[in-house]
Design goal:
This is Fatty acid desaturase family protein. Keywords: Membrane, Transmembrane, Transmembrane helix. InterPro entries: FA_desaturase_dom, Fatty_acid_desaturase, Rhizopine-oxygenase-like. It comes from Maritimibacter dapengensis. The protein has 18 helices and no strands. It is mainly alpha-helical and 357 residues long. It has one domain. Helix 4 crosses helix 5. The relative contact order is 0.14. The C terminus is likely disordered.
Length: 357
């Protein structure tokens, strides 16, 4: 597919269905059943601990930020609050959408609703969108969550470090859904019986945001918006930084996560914010393994995986040149090297690989 049509209603999606790329059987590293059963065991404790830390941190930073407002001394506290609101909530949204963060379902559902609101992602729409992402990961015309399209649009990628395009898109979709409508693409992955729920949630959100905006206007201050809304912009940089590394510069239209996903070793603070999604090959191979067990899963299957990038900076050093080359040739991608202990890739997955220039 040299000309890529990322629309869910376009030619690339039709070809993916015809050629068997859509809903294909993916490669999985073999793990003994007993060991995998243990890794998939859910627990409330780790997620309750992390959620308490998250919301306690948000509360402390917001209270100090309000107390110091409008002094510039409040700025560091708002920036810290923003990262927890506009980035940590991205990973909470993600993990709770899988229902694996907590053992207790209602805890997953509650945090998923809160995180979806913070990220301005309709919880009904995105639950089904993310299911499609896992079924057809980086399959052009089938995956609605491809963050970096080919050729890359660098202006948009950089602007999203400030949440600009994502937030605009979220607001537009929220208002559209609140009017009682869905986009044509949303209708392709949201079951008909679920669609009224998406509309109802959007209407509730519009009321909350309208109330916050009215309060800001009445006070003559953006302070209410610093608590609700604006952190989605100034706190987005961390989730964009880590999110681009998930698949950026790697293969598309393949059915082996070792080819299209990237694992990156990260510092403890980023791992807390990101909720261990830096183990991204592992997560895509086995999405029902809870986030707090991913380091163990990594140790169990690393003999069959490409070597992880050693840091966030190392990941960008690999990804960024590949994105630049895709400006000239959108078929180019980084081919990951496997250890000798790994099962080999199917070579036909690499037909589109471009030799180094």
């Amino acid at each position: 597919m040299e000309t890529r049509d990322y629309s869910m209603l376009g030619e690339s999606g039709r070809l993916a269905v015809e050629t068997g790329l859509a809903t294909a059987e993916w490669y999985h590293t073999q793990v003994p059943r007993k060991e995998m059963k243990a890794l998939m065991q859910r627990a409330d404790g780790p997620a309750i601990r992390d959620t308490i830390i998250l919301f306690a941190g948000m509360m402390v930073f917001a209270v100090i930020g309000v107390a110091l407002w409008p002094s510039l001394w409040s700025l560091p506290f708002w920036l810290a609050y923003g990262v927890l609101y506009g980035s940590a909530m991205d990973s909470r949204w993600h993990e709770c959408s899988h229902g694996t963060a907590f053992k207790t379902r209602k805890y997953n559902d509650w945090l998923y609703q809160v995180a979806s609101f913070c990220m301005i992602r309709n919880p009904v729409t995105w639950r089904w969108s993310h299911a499609r992402h896992h079924t057809d990961t980086v399959i052009v015309g089938r995956d609605p969550e491809i963050a970096i399209m080919r050729p890359p649009v660098f202006f948009k990628l950089i602007a999203n470090f400030f949440g600009i395009f994502d937030t605009i898109d979220g607001i537009k979709r929220m208002l559209l859904n609140a009017s009682g409508r869905l986009t044509d693409e949303e209708a392709t992955w949201i079951p008909e019986q679920e669609q009224p729920k998406a509309i109802r949630v959007a209407r509730i959100w519009v009321v909350i945001y309208a109330t916050t905006l009215a309060l800001a206007l009445a006070m003559g201050s953006i302070l209410p918006l610093m608590v609700i809304g604006l952190p989605r912009l100034f706190g987005a940089w961390h989730h964009v930084m880590t999110g681009l590394l998930q698949h950026g510069g790697l293969a598309d239209n393949v059915i082996d996560h070792r080819l299209n996903s990237r694992t990156v070793i990260m510092n403890p603070v980023s791992r807390f914010i990101y909720w261990n999604m830096n183990y991204h090959v592992e997560h895509h191979m086995f999405p029902m393994v809870p986030y707090h067990r991913l380091p163990e899963l990594h140790d169990a299957i690393k003999h069959d995986l490409p070597a992880p990038n050693t840091s966030i900076a190392d990941g960008f050093r690999e990804m960024w040149p590949a994105l630049r080359r895709q400006l000239r040739n959108e078929n180019y991608f980084v081919k990951r090297d496997l250890p000798e202990s790994a099962k080999p890739y199917r070579e036909d997955f690499h037909v589109a690989a471009i030799a180094a220039e």
